[in-house]
Write a structure and sequence with these properties.
Elements: H1 7-18, E1 30-39, E2 46-55, H2 60-64
The protein binds zinc ion.
Length: about 70
């Protein structure tokens, strides 16, 4: 029998170990994946850059656009 770790196990572990509060607004900081296009200088093509953005009350309106 192969040892399995489900996706939900990993998420639960990450949430329990990685949760922290913003010192400014005192709300739990969540992390979302943002994909932003970046233009290449010479070729003029676009690349999509993925990054993890920390979101709390301070910047949620700005990041989520509402
Ligand atoms: Zn904050």
């Amino acid at each position: 029998m192969a040892k399995q770790q489900t996706f939900s196990d990993k998420v639960a572990k990450a949430q329990s170990s990685g949760l922290h509060k913003c010192p400014v607004c005192d709300t739990p900081v969540t992390h979302i994946r943002v994909i932003s296009p970046t233009q290449q200088g010479a070729s003029g093509g676009y690349r999509f850059q993925r990054r993890i953005q920390a979101v709390c009350k301070c910047n949620s309106a700005e990041v989520l656009g509402n």
